[in-house]
Amino acid sequence: MKTWLCCLLFVCGCLVSAQSDVSGQAPVTLQVGVVGCNGLCDSVDVFVDVTGLAGSQHPAGLNAFVLAFDLSRSDVFASAVAGGDPELAWTFTHTSRDTVDTGNRLVVVGSVAATTAPNQNYQVANILLCGAAGAVTLTFVPEASSLGARLIDGDGPGPIAIQAPAAFNTAITTTFPLTFFTGISAWQTENSDYDLAAPAEVVDILDLVQLSNCGQP
Which residues form the signal peptide (predicted)? Predict the structure, then answer.
């Protein structure tokens, strides 16, 4: 995971100025997110707060992140997307669903080359959970996680220390009833259960893509 962050910082450091010697810790927090997949899946928002952190010259902005979580039920991870606050063009990736299912660990990774990345609380990711109803716990793994800072007119790049969150308990409220096979069978028909993506018309390729994002097959 440290190698991932070093590569991200190298790329971003070539494009923007970056802050080094950042003092203090950035809290990582998790919150219940909005439901997805027509209300059938629950989600968790991941935040990193760099508010008030500064380096040798100016307030720091978030440049890159590698955040690892162990899931108590690995089979419920469906997908993850980059956060939207602030609206930055994150380069984003995450552990594949198959790998999470066999190893229980989810890693979300992002980087951005933004000269105006602000000194604020960042929503960096939204994690979608689908499957059988029941409790789910996400446990942060600090030794596999890293943050990188940058600063307008600063030096760097450099790391930001993390204030780790407590284990986060949430729950899947509805057992996911849809299957990819039935979705394919509903192709080009009016089926509200499988019409998961706009526009609300017949089931098409956009709906099947969203069905995959909801954890199927």
Answer: 1-18
